[in-house]
Amino acid sequence: MASNTLVSRRATAKPRPGRRRSGREPDLGRQRTLISPAQLGRPRGKAVYWIVFALVVAGFTVVFLGPLYWMVTGGLKTTQEVVQSPPTAFPTSIHTENYSQAWTVMDLSRLLFNTLYYAFGALAFQLVLDVAAAYSLSKLRPVFGKVILGMMLATLMIPATVLVVPQYLTVLDVPVFQRNLLNSPWAIWLPSVTNAFNIFLLKRFFDSIPRELLDAAAIDGASPLRTLRSVVLPISRPILGVVSIFAVVGVWKDFLWPMLTLPDPDKQTLNVGIYSLASGVPENVLIAALTIASVPTLLIFLIFQRNIMSGLTAGGLKG
């Protein structure tokens, strides 16, 4: 009895504060990092850390902002300074009139209006049709819904250039309707609707919506369409903002498809119009036009970057 009591006391006894832990006992308060806190606390370790950090940040800044800086400053230089080798880091003389000349000579106002018209038209079709497809696959669960979703996602594995020829032949002579859609906005709007990535994003977000909300709406007598309009869409603003940005930017940066389907100069987009007029203007004016064409998408990203990140991660966790 005495030996058993002694063993139990030893088992329940707490370790003294000065006792060293054995190598097998886990240290729950310790975290694994690239640089240990002890090394970071030393002057040499802290100096090396901040030097490496500054070099990495400077390198990424040069890689990402270097082309933008070259484009903006190139529009302020003369033609001789733009084409000289080696190039100059700063313009010797600033010529802001290059931007006004690019705006008038290349008729950028008309090209911007055409691009905005096509972009927001594609956005309207995607918000209506892609949301309906994602909602039906997520909540209505039709027959062979998983098969349909798998076939949609399989199209993401196909390069976009492979689909150019069949899409062009379809637009040239639409089946059943027997219509030629060249030089019409439908040639831009209809192919942009079939966006499997946006449908997948919307479906993932709709999957994270609690089923109890939809059941409560159904008990109140709401139809599936009313539930979508009054319950699902109001709480889906983050992902709808992400899809909207992707739709606008996708049309804005597209070049090959508008060049094939919009041969009329009066109906061309910004990228195609600048390309078609590039041979008749100096290099500095062309760079100024490219800078103006890049400003809207940069502003969209800078303004809505938080919405993009929150929308992309909104459907990742259920809670």
Distinctive features:
319 residues, 16 helices, flat, 2 domains, 67% helix, MetI-like fold, mainly alpha
CATH superfamily of the largest domain: MetI-like
Overall pLDDT level: 83
Main pleated sheet: none
Question: Low-confidence parts, pLDDT < 50 over ≥5 residues?
Answer: 21-29
Q: What's the helical proportion of residues?
A: 55-70%
Quote the CATH topology of the largest domain. MetI-like fold
- Helix and strand element order: HHHHHHHHHHHHHHHH
Family: Belongs to the binding-protein-dependent transport system permease family.
Biased composition (Basic residues): 11-22
Protein name: Carbohydrate ABC transporter permease
Membrane topology: Multi-pass membrane protein
Explain how this protein is built:
It is a single chain. The chain has helices spanning 2-12, 37-41, 43-74, 79-83, 97-105, 108-140, 145-154, 164-172, 186-193, 196-207, 211-219, 224-232, 237-253, 256-261, 270-277, 283-314. The protein is an all-alpha fold. The chain has two domains: 38-99, no CATH class; 102-314, MetI-like (MetI-like fold). The relative contact order is 0.12. Residues 21-29 have low confidence and may be disordered. Keywords: Cell membrane, Membrane, Transmembrane, Transmembrane helix, Transport. InterPro entries: MetI-like (IPR000515), MetI-like_sf (IPR035906). It is found in: Cell membrane. Residues 112-304 form the ABC transmembrane type-1 domain.
Brief write-up:
This protein has 319 residues and is mostly helical. The chain has helices at 2-12, 37-41, 43-74, 79-83, 97-105, 108-140, 145-154, 164-172, 186-193, 196-207, 211-219, 224-232, 237-253, 256-261, 270-277, 283-314. The protein folds into two domains: 38-99, no CATH class; 102-314, MetI-like fold (Orthogonal Bundle).
